[in-house]
Amino acid sequence: MENTAIIPVQAKMELMKLRLVYLFSGLAGGLFNPYLTTLFVHQGLGADAAGVLMSVGTLLSILVQPVWGLLVDRYRQTKLVLILSISVPACLSFFYGYKYFIVIVMAYILSIVFQATQSPIADSYAVSAAKKAFTSYGTIRMLGSLGTALGGYAGGLYLSNFGITQLWMPFLALSLASAVTVLSLSRSTENNAAAISLSQGLKELLGNRLFVMFLAACFFVNQTLTAYNSFFVLAFQDAGGSYSLVGTALLLASLTNIPSMLLAARILRRLGHERTLLLAAFFYALRWAIQWLFPVPAVMVGIQVLHGLSFGLFYVAAVEHVANAAGRKMQATGQSVFNMVFSGLGGIAGNLLNGYLYQAGGAQAMYLACTVSALIGAGMLYWINRMAGMSPNL
Residue 261 and residue 304: Cα distance in Å, rounded? Predict the structure, then answer.
């Protein structure tokens, strides 16, 4: 909980602005991203081709993140980079409406180039602002989940009345609202977000054996999330679900992040980072196992209640662990390294593997593989927990 009696006025204002940034970005992403694979398939790409395209894009995001890091370190333009990472992909989404493969590919690749640095920079802002305001990162990040929940539901309603190629319009409007809010952030918040070179930060962080193992566990766990982010809408439709009902499922999933993220600080204090991450990894495995065993729309909607206990709890615990491991001077670098593995390498492997499995064996083959992968990640986290001697930090 926040102690409003001792929070400086400027810190409270920055906290409010960052919450709005996460809310608008969550609305935009929740409305657009779950339907992107469906849009690609609608425009003539197969599910496997869409998975390959997204994996190539994710690989590119890993390659360009160090370049963005060097630019930020040299020119100290963190705010400008964050604004570009939000607004440019939104503007390029217009071109997904063209039924030309090369146009779709170029628009997507350019979007990835700019979007790659959005999460690590926004998270480094949020961690710094939360500490100044004596609150937790989860109280900021949960606004992103609320936005994602409402956006996913709104996307389903929107597509019930408009064509999927028109989805770029609300996505653009909400993204620009987020970019305008970033523009109002103070210079002091920007300075705190990046304070050490990416190369130096990489050397220090990757020299920590347990931290490297933690990144590997995050990879095995989060690569499974592409089954939800990239292929859930397709799997749901194949099981007989409608656009309006899939919007309900997306809403339910993201809403469950809110209590998880609000309670994350209390859970972390009680269980510690390792056991919280291990618990969340088991919820990942349970989530995929149930969808593998019971592939019907009603179950696929109901099981989304595990999204907050899997992704929501795991993500907050991981980001706060990275913040502790990186220290104040390596906030942006630490979050970049984590994001490169968690969303980057995990996204590449997940989109390639799950796209192939979905095309070759359907949703059940995909969900079975995700169950196994999440259990592998859980096993690695259990080993880390033992190596760390049950301490509250990895």
Answer: 16
CA distance linking residue 287 with residue 292, whole number of Å: 9
CA 28 remoteness from chain centre? 13
Task: Give ∠ CA 356-361-362 in degrees, rounded to 5.
Answer: 90
Local structure of residue 172 (DSSP, 8 states) = H
| Angle of the 47-75 helix axis to the 78-92 helix axis, nearest 10 | 150
- Residues (pLDDT < 70) of the chain are 1-8, 66, 69-70, 72-76, 187-205, 326-333, 388-394
Q: pLDDT at position 366, please?
A: 92
Whose tokens are 């390596």? That residue is 330
Tokens representing residue 206 in the block: 């990757």
- Taking the C-alpha atoms of residue 114 and residue 86, their distance in angstroms, rounded to an integer, is 8
Instruction: Compute CA distances 239 → 131, 246, 390, whole Å.
Output: 45, 11, 43
Q: How many other β-carbons are positioned within 10 Å of the β-carbon of residue 196?
A: 18
Element (H, E) at 372: helix 346-387
Query: For residues 30 and 150, is the Cβ–Cβ distance under 8 A?
Result: yes
Angle between helices 168-183 and 9-32 (to 10 degrees): 160
Terminal-residue alpha carbon distance, the chain:
25
Whole-angstrom distance, CA of residue 271 vs CA of residue 92: 43
CA angle at residue 143 from 39 to 145, to 5 degrees?
40
Query: What whole-number distance in Å separates Cα of residue 218 and Cα of residue 378?
Result: 9
Which residue has tokens 């990186």? 326
Beta-carbon contacts of residue 46 (< 8 Å; ≥ 6 apart): 359
Task: Tell me what percent of the residues of the chain surpass a pLDDT of 90.
Answer: 22
